[in-house]
Write a structure and sequence with these properties.
The complex is a heterodimer. Chain A is mainly alpha-helical. Chain A contains 15 helices and five strands. Chain B is elongated, with a radius of gyration of 36 Å.
């Protein structure tokens, strides 16, 4: 039974933010997805005409997301722990399957056809890596002073293979997320100083071969980040238009539905990857700054939740999920403001998209479930 | 859950401090993002606001319909017609190079030519801004492009107004032509009305009355989306058509004058002596102004430069007036009273001065001549004699009073002012002291309109006009009225007659000169019997021939063949009619035409016939003669 004691352990502040941020997102999405003539929305069962289809769909996704989150919160932590390696294993197998039988779309092999459905295992793999690392490290924690070289082998072996597989698709964004979450979990538990120094040196030495190994369009994105005016009609176009959208919002913004960059479609992908630019354009520094603050508070709360968990597995899972969401948030916002490369990562809880909403909500469900359940509380 | 970990930690690792560290990292990251947000929105906000406005706002200009020009009876001499251009929007073509190749195939044009036009000024081009590849193409080209439009993404046909010249070369030098505005025009006083690529008058009235003809371009500030599609309009300024011009030109007279000069080089100017209105102004050979609307080929240029087609001989050609000058000499003689009208001078065929012989054109001599008979027979010796009595500076004074040695002020650019020599001119024109002295012998040449004397046909027409209108030098006019495009009150002030000067010669003296000029055309022994007009008009013509030497007689006698033609005299005739109440002055100049009475007088006769014929047709009852058909006028001219 989920007792009142359990509910009391839920971090209501974080939960409030998790409701509040998507509501802000809905307002922005209404404007970004606005279509004056009304667009026929096909909901499989019935059709309705709405002026902002992404808004309506996102509303449904969020409703569904809350259900998914509640369900995830109710999964006993023991089951989560026990199925950690299983989920990880399935994820890796799916990735191998993608590499062998995947469907190529937009130049990369990300989708796996499974009978009637095609799935993109990336989200699944992220969660698998977090769970597997949490279980592994909670059972084999590093010694005093943090990880030594030898201690690092096991955790690195967990996240490196899926990361490489994803990078080969190529899906640089997801690969970076996997690498990031692996690295932050390790750092959270501590690493000996000379290991850190060596890692930094290795990174510096590997920079050149990695750069060589990137695809042309990936390199182009990084180059255009630092010099977007080099080719304003090509790779730099997205960054330029996004910076114009953000900057032209000034202090109070152009007003709801008044963003010219958005409404006239100068801004690319404005319901998904560049949703933050819409917020900044229409609501200005006041609106965008407020949303930034909400995210900041959310992440501070989630870190606190992680630290307060009774067992290391739960701590590491909560921390890992927080780390992934943080990475997504910072990379996305950094990207639309032209300080980080364009990697096609949506803004969690804000961007339009069913899979993004559902996977985020599921992860947050795990966060609340694991943090609230007493160890051995059954 | 039996692993041996204590709550909230593992051995030696304080997770709370780790979490605090993570919280700091998160806070710093968000601080960085907020700083960036501040920099973009507050620091650079105004810059990006401008750029976002620039993104969505495009200014579209609508070229104003240019004013048309009609003759004095309302017949269109220049109007507008639609012209088809082939344009291309690069962004609409998935592969511009392939499209250009296909377009080249369809039209049989080298792809490289199209590519070059596309690349020209590419840096200044905006996204989705069309580029003109081919100008003023034929309907056949339009048809071929339209039928292949699915294979030619981004290619489209646009329509712009261009000039139409119903009478091709007619009055080309007066009307002028249009061409893309030059750099000087783009930066000149009218710079605000021009955009690069706009058409602007480059010659003739199109140039000098640009301001009136041009109109005001319409301006629309439109909102476009990222695809360059128009989604709204912010502000607009309506297009204002150019004013139309009612010219003083009489199409029938102009046509007759051009017909009379066909195959010749020269000029005709016909004007109304009372008002100064120019009825015809011809410079032959002419050009077709329509060729300037398309792309000029090297062949076109050589055609234009051959025989100086672009030169308006009526105002830019300066020629010695020859004996035509004697008309003004007589006015000076009478006004200065250096001889009475009756005083006779003996002409033995030559005139000796300081041991040098100056020939009369008639070797056997004219015998005893007085003022009137000297003009009728064009006796040189009489004028040599009187020239000596007047002196060059007096001659200059009267010539200047008749408007020589100055611009006439006609509404056309690049007018030449000619030259009347004087002692002062010689001092100014020559550097060496020895050359600055005026020799009395030079006055002899000046008195028969030779030597350094040079005038334009228009100057002669204006001066003769003053002789026949009672001494008023009238400003030559080309425009009667400027009609506003909105149907408002026509501005007739431009067509108001302007008396530029009253010549200091009495009416009686001018009447005596005119009597001589009537004799020139109508009396036995007169030099211009062929200047008479059709007898049915009952009109008497007066005038004076001129046969202007191009080179000395001796040199001409030695020349042969083509060179001989180059040395042939210029033929002049300056006439007016009717003698008792002059309504038209016609001046004809035929370069290297020979004798004025033989080569130029028939030209003015044809022009006057057209003038009086056209007037009769207009005055006749409407059933009898429909007035405005070209065929009718031609008939009139031939009669």
């Amino acid at each position: 039974m989920i007792a009142a004691r359990t509910l009391r352990k839920i971090d209501w502040m974080a939960l409030a933010l998790i409701v509040c941020i998507p509501l802000c997102g809905l307002v922005v999405l209404y404007s970004a997805g606005f279509h004056p003539g009304g667009r026929l929305l096909d909901l499989a069962i019935f059709e309705i005409s709405v002026t902002s289809a992404p808004f309506a769909k996102q509303l449904l996704f969020l409703g569904l997301g809350i259900a998914v989150m509640s369900a995830a919160a109710m999964i006993p932590s023991d089951i989560v722990r026990r199925s950690a390696y299983l989920i990880y294993g399935i994820g890796v197998i799916l990735l191998v399957g993608v590499a062998l039988f995947g469907i190529v779309s937009n130049g990369s092999r990300r989708w796996l056809p499974l009978g009637v459905v095609t799935i993109q295992p990336a989200e699944f793999v992220k969660l698998g890596v977090i769970l597997a690392m949490a279980r592994m490290l909670s059972e084999h924690p590093p010694g005093r002073g943090g990880f030594s070289f030898m201690g690092l082998i096991r955790p690195v072996l967990i996240f490196l293979p899926p990361m490489m597989l994803v990078a080969r698709q190529p899906d640089l964004g997801t690969a970076l997320v996997i690498g990031w979450v692996g690295a932050t979990i390790i750092l959270f538990l501590g690493v000996r100083r000379r290991v850190v120094v060596c890692a930094l040196l290795c990174g510096a030495l590997l920079a050149v071969p990695i750069w060589r190994g990137l695809h042309d369009y990936q390199r182009q994105r990084i180059i255009s980040l630092f010099n977007p005016d080099l080719d304003p009609r090509g790779a730099g176009y997205h960054i330029n238009q996004s910076k114009i959208a953000v900057g032209s919002g000034e202090l109070f913004g152009k007003g709801f539905m008044q963003g010219t960059q958005t409404q006239l479609e100068f801004l690319p992908e404005h319901t998904t990857d560049f949703i933050f630019s819409v917020l900044a354009e229409e609501w200005g520094f006041v609106g965008a700054g407020a949303v930034l603050f909400l995210y900041l508070v959310l992440f501070q709360r989630l870190i606190m939740v992680a630290a307060r968990c009774r067992d290391l597995f739960a701590t590491l899972v909560v921390f890992g999920i927080t780390s992934v969401l943080f990475f997504h948030t910072v990379v996305n916002i950094g990207m639309v403001m032209g300080v980080l490369p364009v990697v096609g990562i949506p803004l969690p809880l804000f961007s339009y998209g069913g899979s993004s909403v559902l996977s985020t909500m599921f992860s947050l469900g795990l966060v609340f479930g694991l943090s609230a359940q007493q160890r051995g509380g059954r | 859950m039996t692993r041996g970990q204590s709550q909230n930690g593992i051995k030696g690792v304080d997770l709370r401090s780790r979490a605090s560290l993570a919280a700091v990292v998160v806070a710093l990251s968000f601080g960085g993002l907020a700083a960036r947000l501040w920099f973009l929105q507050i620091g650079q906000g105004a810059v990006f606001r401008d750029r976002s406005e620039h993104n969505r706002l495009k200014t579209v200009y609508i070229p104003p319909p240019r004013g048309v020009m009609t003759d004095r009876h309302g017949e269109e001499l220049v109007s507008n017609r639609p012209s088809f251009n082939i344009e291309f929007i690069r962004e609409d073509a998935p592969n511009p190079s392939v499209v250009l190749e296909k377009l080249g195939d369809v039209l049989g044009i080298d792809k490289a030519v199209l590519a070059e036009r596309l690349e020209k000024n590419r840096a200044r081009r905006q996204r989705f801004e069309p580029k003109v590849l081919l100008k003023d193409v034929s309907r056949d080209v339009v048809a071929r492009v339209s039928s292949n439009r699915y294979a030619l993404p981004g290619v489209f046909v646009s329509v712009t107004p261009v000039r139409r010249y119903p009478y091709q070369e007619m009055a080309a030098h007066v009307l002028g032509y249009l061409r893309e505005a030059t750099k000087a025009q783009l930066e000149g006083p009218l710079s605000e009305t021009f955009l690069p690529g706009d058409l602007a008058g480059q010659y003739g009235l199109e140039l000098s009355l640009e301001r009136a003809l041009r109109g005001q371009r319409g301006k629309q500030q439109i909102v476009v989306n990222a695809l360059g599609t128009r989604v709204g309009e912010l502000a607009s300024e309506p297009v204002v058509s150019g004013h139309s011009l009612e010219l003083t030109i009489d199409r029938g007279v102009q046509e007759a004058a051009e017909h009379a000069l066909e195959g010749k080089r020269g000029s005709v100017v016909a004007l109304d002596p009372k008002t100064g209105e120019i009825l015809a102004m011809v410079s032959a050979p002419a050009f077709n102004p329509a060729i300037f609307s398309g792309d000029l080929s090297p062949g076109d240029w050589s055609h234009l430069s051959a025989e100086k087609r672009m030169l308006n001989r009526a105002i830019q050609g300066t020629y010695p007036p020859g004996s035509v000058f004697k008309v003004f000499m007589e006015a000076a003689i009478l006004a200065e009273k250096v001889a009475s009208p009756e005083e006779r001078v003996h002409c033995p065929g030559s005139y000796w001065f300081k041991g040098r012989e100056y020939r009369c054109h008639k070797k056997s001599g004219h015998g005893a001549v007085n003022l009137r008979s000297a003009l009728i027979q064009s006796c040189d010796v009489y004028f040599y004699t009187m020239g000596q009595r007047l002196g060059v500076d007096t001659i200059y004074r009267y010539a200047a009073a008749f408007g020589f040695d100055e611009l006439t002020g006609v509404e056309l650019d690049h007018e030449a002012k000619g030259l009347i020599p004087s002692t002062e001119w010689k001092r100014r024109a020559f550097k060496r002291a020895g050359d600055q002295k005026w020799y009395a012998g030079e006055t002899i040449s000046v008195s028969i309109g030779q030597g350094a004397v040079s005038v334009t046909p228009l100057q002669i027409a204006r001066a003769l006009g003053s002789v026949v209108n009672g001494g008023r030098v009238m400003k030559p006019l080309l425009v009667r009225a400027i009609n506003p495009s909105n149907g408002g009150v026509p501005d007739r002030s431009v067509g108001e007659p302007v008396v530029q000067r009253q010549v200091p010669v009495s009416d009686a003296a001018l009447a005596l000169v005119r009597s001589g000029m009537v004799g020139v055309v109508n009396e036995p022994g007169g030099t211009a019997r062929r200047a008479q007009v059709d007898q049915s008009f009952g009109v008497m013509v007066g005038g004076k021939t001129g046969t202007a030497q191009v080179v000395g007689l001796k040199r001409r006698e030695l020349a042969t063949g083509k060179e001989a033609h180059q040395y042939e005299d210029h033929a002049w005739f300056a006439g007016y009619a009717p003698a008792e109440d002059p309504q038209i002055v016609v001046v004809a100049l035929v370069e290297h035409g020979g004798h004025g009475g033989a080569a130029a007088a028939p030209v003015t006769s044809e022009v006057m016939n057209a003038f009086f014929g056209g007037r009769r047709a207009r005055l006749a009852p409407s059933g009898e003669a429909s007035t405005e058909h070209p065929a009718d006028s031609k008939e009139g001219g031939a009669r």
